[in-house]
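Researcher: Here's a chain I'd like modeled. Treat it as a single chain, no partners, no ligands.
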Amino acid sequence: MKNQISSTGDLLVEASPSRGWKVPFFTIWTGQAFSLFGSQLVQFALVWWLTQQTGSATALATATLVAILPQVLLGPLVGALVDRWNRRVTMMLADGLTAAAIVILALLFATGLVQVWHIYVIMFLRSIFSGFHWPAMQASTSLMVPEQHLARVQGLNQSLFGLMSIGSAPVAALLMEWLSIEGILMIDVSTAMLAILPLFFIAVPQPQRILDAQVSGAATTFWHDLKEGFRYVWAWPGLMLIGLMVTIINMLLTPASSLQPILVYNHFQGQALQLAWMESAMGIGMVVGGILLGMWGGFKRRIHTSLLGLVLLGFSLGSIGFVSPNYLWLAVVMMFLSGVATPIIDGPMLALAQAVVAPEMQGRVFTLMQSFASAMTPLGLLIAGPASDALGPQIWFIVGGITCVLLAIGALFVPAIVHLEEGKSIHTQARLGEQ
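Model: Modeled as a single isolated chain. Structure tokens:
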């Protein structure tokens, strides 16, 4: 472990990726966990407010659309900036600006001036700030955590998301009985401050290539870095195909997820408590899935583990579309199974990406893949809202579930996907040859 003095005179403790990494990393991680909890409280409260105020699937689809658009439009630009900027400062600014946006929304609620479009604007801004924070944190993790522990950290992340889903939905539903919505919003502001505080004292490592460029004065231009990110992904067929798969899946499943409140409210005749049951069931499943993955470890090829999880996800979500209004409990069980599948998909896939993608490229690669994943989601949402108002949201669960199963089975017969992990050294040699 080594220490630094910041430009403001603060003592910064920097993690070594080989020793002494746990205390610095998990101090930051704990602050981010509190912030995540606050964000999920706000997300639940705002979505349920929109559900009660409008009763419209189109309104919920629009809310999801405005939250996704920045990821689609700005993702590649954001990734290039994250790889150039100080990642610690990037995370601090992202959390701080998110808190500022929530304060403004709380004031609108407190003064009785809030309108539905205000919610959309704040969701849009939060998505922009999150678009900087997520790749900065993911890219920093691979430099703070030894490679052999990346899968464990991702499993821990998945369990954390599950625990948050278990607790945040019922806590939010309970708080909505006791507090005004602006009170819930201010909880999010407080947890954002807890996320920022450790970053004042703990340095986040920069990729060696960036540090060398800063010392030599031979830093590349923004546009060079942006084009390099596109070339890196384009030259790796396995990454491109994974991006295409996720694009199709998100186009179908994101609308299904955003329409879940309408499914509960209109189809199952439920209220906020029943929606909390659904979300908590998924959270419990994520914890169980994370524990199973930790005990089992997955297949030797991490991609096989992710594809198995995708089959389970497709089966469980597709089944929800066939559940009759009198069997809410069965839908809750299926949501539990979809939660079990989530860490089995995401944990190995994120660990794989952090292990095989060069550290100085990770900001760009993560945001490019995120942009690919979200590229067709706006189209799905534009169709899903009006169609679900007319036909019911169940259709999206059915089509999305079947698609997940078919894609997972098909991927097993594509060598570029199956052998993605072995492509690291080959891809690196190809890049060196180009240079």
